[in-house]
Batch of 4 targets.
Target 1
Amino acid sequence: MIKDTKKILFATDLSIECRNSYSYAVHLAMDRKGSISLLHVIETPSISLETRVKNLFGENRYEEIMRKHEDDARSILIGKRKEKEILQSALSKFCEESMGSDPGCFLQPDEIIIKKGEVAKEIVLTAEEKESDMIILSSHEGWTTSVSKVIRDVLLLSKVPVIVVPPTGN
């Protein structure tokens, strides 16, 4: 038996290509009288990359560089506001702009979620945590010749249907 799709998890990297897939998710949720949870995952660097940098500069210098980088990013890019608030604001603006061409069709996200970690794993874990019935992802230009590692991994790990929406014009 096919489960009725009511709870949709929409994962986004906040790129322009994601607007088409967000519009699709909104229309699907409205059609099914469902809800959407928006997810953005901040990818953490791989352990091997981190290890190589630590070996190059030393543990203490690496930690110092990382702290300075975080402080600089906060100061320059987001001022005194918290990173989560900025990302939530960016996600809300993304929603509004995505639906700008169809103002009669706007569905406020049920929840905006921001996580750090391995992108594909965090998407699948969040879908399980939120008991999502479906995951919607966006592909990028050239997706027909090479599906991204994130999409491939989500397709392999997910226990719920995954829809991959091509960018506008494809």
Target 2
Amino acid sequence: MRQIVLLRGINLGSRNRIAMPRLRQVLSEAGFADVATYLQSGNVLLTSDAAPRQLEAGVERAIADGLGLEIDVVVRSRDELAAVVARNPLAEIAANPKRYLVTFLREELSPETVAELATLALAPERLVAIGRELYAWHPEGVARSRLWARLAGRALGVTATARNWTTVTNLLALADA
């Protein structure tokens, strides 16, 4: 089964630097098949029949053993990613795909946490939570966004990583190729 593995917090500044050819090598040597990467921000496509939690743990272990880094990952199957794209709850307003972000969560957030996040979305920002994804529209960018600051940090209480809409749709296209 084609799986999408999203690494959290790599190649941002000088921390957690990972060259994509080396990452592909490490994951291939760990037994994962058809390993491919997209961009330099930790987007991996691979083939595995492992359950999501098992795959997350296996990739985290392979990165720790092969690269000496403790990196959190979130996994979605090709079908799960297709559902994320099909839902697209902000399609009518999210005009710039670079400012439309999907945060992928390892687990669903509590309703209380979602309500708290919603208070941080200051107009014209928008936030929609559906299952294990948070769709966020930042029409003025993320630089001064309180919502983005919270989504990008570790205060959500679950492992999470975000990708812009262009990356999300391109990952799906690659998974289908």
Target 3
Amino acid sequence: MQTELLTYSHDGEDFDVFVAHPDATETRPAVLVFHAWGGRDTFAEDKARALAKLGYVGAAIDLYGIGKRGTDVASSEALMTGLLSDPAKLRSRLERAHAVVAALSTADADCMGAIGYCFGGLCAILSARMGLPLRGVVSFHGLLKLGEPLDAKVQAQIMVQHGQDDPMVPPAEVGAFAAEMKRVNADWQLHAYPGVMHAFTNPQANDPGFGAVYNEDATHRSWMEMRRFFEDTLV
């Protein structure tokens, strides 16, 4: 495996992407990894490495900009809210990140996917709702807030990995999301893990009062579901 950090500019700001390449010379399907609310971190980069071990080009995206990271709940929420409150900017950054990864010499631009965690799960789903040329996207304990309706043709299959007891995604939002998926005729599925809360893939999450708790079983099962999903879609 080889890794590199590539920089690019967009709308007058600098960004970078952490790329993990499999040990292969031919082009491979590429999977974008969208970070949680604090910004791209070791967790996201480790997921890119894990995807490379599966034979994909793993690309951990930085949606905030070089050096912009949350250090606590307040600063992380401020960074995330800043993008969510400007939907056009968020969509523009997602589109640009996709183009950067698609242009990699090792990436098969016609066979790409995306995954995301928390805020990144929302971004993975949004990438599909925007109509970006992706084969499949997977949201891990992602936010399901829809924002403004979009009418682009959804090309990607969508998999939602959801903690049934996630207080940040109440049942009403799950229902609204299902209705929107039906409206846009999306090919989607949802896996709900009973008794599981938000951030269930993050070993550092241990705050029941906040609603974020790591769950080893859900982490393992959701990753295996992702593997099967990409074996079907990234072909």
Target 4
Amino acid sequence: MTCRVPRLVLASGSPRRHQLLRSIRVEFTAISPDIDETPAEGEEPVAYVERLAREKAAAVQAGIGDVVLAADTTVALGPQILGKPIDADDARRMLRALSGRAHDVHTAVAVRAAGRVSSAIARTRVTMVELTEDDIGWYVATGEPLDKAGAYALQEAGGLFVASVEGSVSNVIGLPLTVVSDLLTQAGFPLSRFRSAAPEP
């Protein structure tokens, strides 16, 4: 009787998380979890992302022996959670708030394996340049900020406005790869078990 090889199931529909895993040649199956992502009243940013990551890991159906990987990212300006803007005006508001200031990006990673869920959090400090109203108007018009936490994407055009990054860059994009590797190893499933030998096209 042969043993079934476990799959890595990524509980995310995020193209950015998909690309980060593909960049290190990890094979996975993606399933988008369906959970309520509304912050609880008074919930701190770190507690918020960790709760959501663990809920995402628990919400996805996977086969026996499969490993579920989930993550949630938020931008925090002090205690204020800056999620995805609801519209262009909200994106402008967020970008004005971030202009010329440092903020934190928190990503919680959760791994579900053998009936247990473990989690860890990465924090990166990002400083933005001073943004003019023309900068903000142009960037919002690209449409890029509308599906990004904090209304910007470091790895895309929003990188023009980032003055410095202290910590993991992949965390800001949405999946801190060193944290992923550590959690999977601790769960008994190092990334090497899911790596493809063939390069991505």
